[in-house]
Each structure stands twice: as structure tokens, then as C-alpha cells.
């Protein structure tokens, strides 16, 4: 007699049936990668100071995403397209974030940001790539910084697509390969898609065949012999110390100063300048309500001397000296995070009052970390003044690729040969011997001294 209950045979597994639990569409949302950009030519890493948006926040083009401390200043990373901040991968306060590292994920508006898929490189971060932002895209805290987002797709649509662009393409069933991109590095922007839809025509973009580099055999390196380490003395074992955390700015300063002293043949020359006329004219201007500093006179005197001797207004290109067309003077400003040198542009074309206003504005924004890149990158000549600290004289390290830096000490009272009191200041010129020889350096100092001791030569206002 057959059993009352017959067990069913297992349902045959069909090879073309997809396991829906592994479907990318159902398992999660593919995010767009937000990478740490290079916000200055010398930047290698940065610090995420603060996230200005939170996970789940809707982002519009131009919205500030986070504040980043670079090797020069604090800048913001702003979005250039719409979307939603899905996942923050690098928390605020994290330092030493390498450029091109993955810091966040974005999705298109309307997608479930909580279901964003975590890429395999979320922890390690991708190798350094094309995440450099051009100078025209770097601005201060309130300006826009464009970021590069990476998305890996299949077929000819593979490329750099923002969440908003992907959503438009999917909604209108369009192919990215049929639309001519206008963004940087051939990036397809939202405006390109909208224009394509409005025109209703096809615009073919030139295809670029990716070349796969051939694998190269790895060279076998010999294991280096262990270095001899002398045993620590009793005094060394008992010594204690406290590590001082370096900001990105101080790291770059240390690196650049070391390179400058190692690679640039520094030459030094100094002279004494009588400041009596400067002090008198400055006092007369103050009585008329015009406030200018001694440093403003020094900047103008240097600019006039550079115009008279254009070969000093030069830099070293790596192979030969190059005379610079503009007299842009970098002025050293001390900040809590390190020394920064904002630039007084076209100093020769400005009077003392305009120079004074420029310096005050630049110095204030330098201390707040709000300088724009073009305001401290470049310059043709540097001035460092420690007179306000009572330093009588010192030597300064050249800021490459510039050829010279002028170190200015305090004005001190001395007696002249006729036993009359006079205010004297020592200035020390550090020059690149490859660009400015000793004779030219001496001629420059003689011209600078003449300008400073006879302020009427400066045009004053």
C-alpha cells in the first residue's frame, strides 16, 4: 500500500535562474566615489577638519561638503552636481588623508542612501590618480572647489558620472557614449545631458581606446644588510620627551626649507639703513589720519629697487635663471599653523596706502585660513620682517623658486658720527648664487638703502 504522504522531489535548479539575493540592483545602490583632491601643487595629504553635510543630506551644486586643511590653508570641497551624501568614510578630524583616497560616497536623489554598496577599496583607498583640482577651481571658504567622482560601469558608458547624470540617463534611456561631454577630463555633466535632450540630436564623442600597460618583470632586490645600531646610553634611556604634532603647513615648511638649504647655494649680504625720514613721514601721515607701517615703506622700497634691477626679480627654472615680468612681493605672516607668505601683487604700481590695505587684508585672512590659492602661490621676491619682535638682524631661507628674500630687523637708536641720535635698521639679503651674483646683490642693497632713506623716491601715496 503506497504511503499516505509522498515526499516531493527537490525542485531542479536551473542554471539560468539568477539568485536574486545576489543581485546588485536588489542588494544595494551603487555609489559615486568622492576622493580627496589635491588642492595645491605641493599637497600630498590633508586633514578633514569638518563635515558640513551629514549622511542623508540632499546636496545641490555649489554646496560646501567639508573643510580640508591643506599644506597651505583651509579650503572647502564643494559639489558641482546634485545628489545625496550617502556615506562618510573618513570622519572629521582625520589627518594624513592621502590625495585620491576615498572619503565619501554619493548617490542620486531619490535612491536609498542607506543601501549604498561599500566598495572593496573603502578602507585602503585607491592609488594616487587624477584627483588634482586646477587652480581656477580652488577658492576660499565660500567659493567652489570641483571634485572628481569615479564610477565603474560596463560597456561604453564606463566613465565619470555623477548621480544626477546617471539618473537622467536611466530615466530617458540614453547612452553616455552618445553625448558630447564638456566637463574637465572629458567628464559628462548634467547640463550636457539636458542640452542633448532639448536638442534631440546625437552628438558623438570621440572614443579613446584605453591602453593596458604590459606587465613588467619585477626586479629582484638584494636584502640590505642590517645597520649597526649603537646601544643606548643610560642618559638616553632615562630621557623623556613629548611629540609635537605637525600640521600639514608645518610639514611642508620643513620639507621646503630642507630642500632649499640643500639645493640652493645661498649667498648673504647686509647693509644698515637710516630710518629717520621714514619715521618722520609716517608720523606726519598719522596726524592726517593715514596709517601706514614701516613694513609698507620697506615693501615699496624693494619694489622700486626691483624695477631698477630687473635681474633680481627672477627665479631659477631648474636649468637657468628666468626674469619675471611682474613685481609680486611675498610678505611673511606668522599664523597659529605656521608661516605663510601672501603676495602683494604689482607692488610697483601701488602707493603706500594701497600696499598697507593689501597687507592688512591678506594678513588677517591668512591667520583665519581663508586665503585663496593665487594669493599665496607664486611671487617674485620675499620679505621677512622680525623687527616687531625686537630682533636686530637675522638671515632668512630662500623660498624656491624665487631667487631672493630680504630679512629686516628692528629699528634701534644709535649715535651718528656727529653724536646725534638716529634710528638704524639692519637688512640681510639671502640670494641664490646661480641667479644673483655678489655684485648684483650689493647693487640691489645700495638701491634699496637709497629708496628707504629717501622716501620721496617711492612716490609715497
Automatic annotation (TrEMBL):
**GO CC term (a single one):** mitochondrion
Keywords associated with the record: Acyltransferase, Lipoyl, Transferase, Transit peptide
Lipoyl-binding domain: residues covered: 31-107
Obligatory cofactor(s): (R)-lipoate
Positions of the Peripheral subunit-binding (PSBD) domain? 160-197
Q: Name one GO biological process term.
A: pyruvate decarboxylation to acetyl-CoA
- Record InterPro entries: 2-oxoA_DH_lipoyl-BS (IPR003016), 2-oxoacid_DH_actylTfrase (IPR001078), Biotin_lipoyl (IPR000089), CAT-like_dom_sf (IPR023213), E2/Pdx1 (IPR045257), E3-bd_dom_sf (IPR036625), PSBD (IPR004167), Single_hybrid_motif (IPR011053)
Give the compositionally biased regions (Low complexity).
Answer: 217-226
EC number(s)?
2.3.1.-
Which residue intervals make up region (Disordered)?
Answer: 202-228
Q: What class of enzyme is it?
A: transferase
Q: Which GO terms describe its molecular function?
A: acyltransferase activity
Q: Which family does it belong to?
A: Belongs to the 2-oxoacid dehydrogenase family.
PANTHER family (UniProt xref): DIHYDROLIPOAMIDE ACETYL/SUCCINYL-TRANSFERASE-RELATED (PTHR23151), DIHYDROLIPOYLLYSINE-RESIDUE ACETYLTRANSFERASE COMPONENT OF PYRUVATE DEHYDROGENASE COMPLEX, MITOCHONDRIAL-RELATED (PTHR23151:SF90)
This chain's protein is named Dihydrolipoamide acetyltransferase component of pyruvate dehydrogenase complex
The organism of origin for this protein: Acanthaster planci (Crown-of-thorns starfish)
